[in-house]
């Protein structure tokens, strides 16, 4: 590995054997080293791949302000998140997460906790990300000796969700707000309680997440074939009326007109959670 830039005595940006940039960390790995020198990979303790141009300058600024042990802990947290979520995460996550955790730790030491008013919604809508937030709290506690509140697990979960979104997509706070609005419309219109452990509920939440991203990003779908839409409308009238109510809400509040196909999929998911509550078996061929 060849050094591209030394950030401090223990952190450097290198070009690995595959020709890709990485941030490497290790005690004293840059001692008496210069740009262009080689570093033995076995001397590194942690590494973080870089795909985004311009992030090196941000990392340089970050490690001059944020303690190295905080950054190293955040690298461990992100490694765990990548394995658990099974997807790529934006390179900027290391910047955002380290910055957030640094100030959360400082607030905790000063006795100034920050209340997360969306913690319940985050926990329900993004259970995997929230669980990772709790894992992050355990790592921070074990490595840095600071016990943060569960509110911080919600904030950290936000970073994981945002890091999964494509560029140009709406922020997770707006997505979560929209999803909760729709869930409430279904709940109070049909007078049901959700079984948050059920497959139907989790499918519905996943559908709403991507629908919200598409809707808020103004990326609608077009489909002129209304045959399946009409069949679903006739077969599940109660669920369809609820979908219509959601459609009116979305048009009034967000200025977005649902395509028939979007309304159809909403109806199918609403019918599934409605039947869960009613205790009616749902067969694969049925919905």
Structure write-up:
With 287 residues, this protein is an alpha+beta fold. The protein folds into three domains: 1-52, Transcription Regulation, Sacy, Chain A, CATH 2.30.24; 66-164, PTS-regulatory domain, PRD; 178-278, PTS-regulatory domain, PRD (Orthogonal Bundle), CATH 1.10.1790. Helices cover 58% and strands 7% of the residues. The protein has helices at residues 55-63, 68-85, 93-109, 119-125, 127-144, 150-164, 172-190, 199-216, 227-235, 237-254, 260-278; strands at residues 2-8, 11-15, 21-25, 46-49. The N and C termini lie far apart (55 Å).
Beta strand count = 4
CATH superfamily of the largest domain: PRD domain
Task: Tell me the helix content.
Answer: 55-70%
Terminal CA distance reads 55 Å
CATH architecture assignment name of the largest domain = Orthogonal Bundle
Total helical segments: 11
Low-confidence stretches: 282-287
Which strands sit side by side, in order, in the main sheet?
1-2-3-4
Mean pLDDT reading: 84
Instruction: Specify the overall morphology.
Output: elongated
Order of helices and strands: EEEEHHHHHHHHHHH
What is this structure, in a nutshell?
By secondary structure, the chain is an alpha+beta fold. The chain has helices at 55-63, 68-85, 93-109, 119-125, 127-144, 150-164, 172-190, 199-216, 227-235, 237-254, 260-278, and strands at residues 2-8, 11-15, 21-25, 46-49. It is elongated.
């Amino acid at each position: 590995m060849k050094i591209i830039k030394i950030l401090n005595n223990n952190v450097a940006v290198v070009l690995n054997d595959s020709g890709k940039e990485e941030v490497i960390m290790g005690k004293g790995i840059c001692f008496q080293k210069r740009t262009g020198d080689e570093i033995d990979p076995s001397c590194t303790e942690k590494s973080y791949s870089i795909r985004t141009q311009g992030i090196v300058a941000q990392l340089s600024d970050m490690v001059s302000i944020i303690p190295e042990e905080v950054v190293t802990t955040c690298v461990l947290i992100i490694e765990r998140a990548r394995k658990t979520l099974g997807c790529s995460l934006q390179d900027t996550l290391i910047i955002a997460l380290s910055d957030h955790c640094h100030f959360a730790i400082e607030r905790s030491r000063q006795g100034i906790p920050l209340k997360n008013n969306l913690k319940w919604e985050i926990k329900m809508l993004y259970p995997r990300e929230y669980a990772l937030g709790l894992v992050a709290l355990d790592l921070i506690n074990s490595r840095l000796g600071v016990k943060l509140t569960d509110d911080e697990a919600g904030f950290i979960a936000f970073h994981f969700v945002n890091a999964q979104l494509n560029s140009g997509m709406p922020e997770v706070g707006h997505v979560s707000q929209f999803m909760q609005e729709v869930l409430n419309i279904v709940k109070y219109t049909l007078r049901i309680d959700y079984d948050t452990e059920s497959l139907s509920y989790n499918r519905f939440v996943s559908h709403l997440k991507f629908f919200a991203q598409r809707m808020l990003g103004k990326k609608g779908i077009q489909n002129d074939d209304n045959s399946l839409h009409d069949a679903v409308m006739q077969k599940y009238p109660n669920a369809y009326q609820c979908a219509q109510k959601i459609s009116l809400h979305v048009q009034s509040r967000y200025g977005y007109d649902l395509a028939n196909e979007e309304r159809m999929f909403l109806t199918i998911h609403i019918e599934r959670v409605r039947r869960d509550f009613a205790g009616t078996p749902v067969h694969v061929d049925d919905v």
